[in-house]
Amino acid sequence: MNLRSTLLGGLLLLALGACSKEHDAPKSTAKPDNPLSAQTEALDKARQLESQIQDAAQQQRQRIDEQAR
């Protein structure tokens, strides 16, 4: 019975020691990565491209109008 109590006490101490805050992993101070950042970047690129396409279309319309005169 004495051996059983000693083992049980030792296991209890190990379990409590494993839960202490001293052994917690250090918290990262880095900014958490946005899971939607890739999609946001793709949308920004698409908006820039859309603007370039519309500018090119406007210039083409102007050239066509000048040739029609």
Description:
The structure is a single chain. This protein has 69 residues and is mostly helical. Helices cover 71% and strands 0% of the residues. The protein has a domain at 36-69.
Radius of gyration: 34 Å
The arrangement of helices and strands along the chain is HH
Question: What is the terminal separation in angstroms?
Answer: 109 Å
Number of helices: 2
Let me know the number of strands: 0
Largest sheet: none
Helicity range: over 70%
Structural class of the secondary elements? Answer: mainly alpha
Query: Uncertain spans, ≥5 residues at pLDDT below 50?
Result: none
What does the overall shape look like? rod-shaped
Strand content: under 5%
The average pLDDT value, as a whole number, equals 83
Organism: Candidatus Competibacter phosphatis
Region (Disordered): 47-69
Biased composition (Low complexity): 52-61
Protein name: Lipoprotein
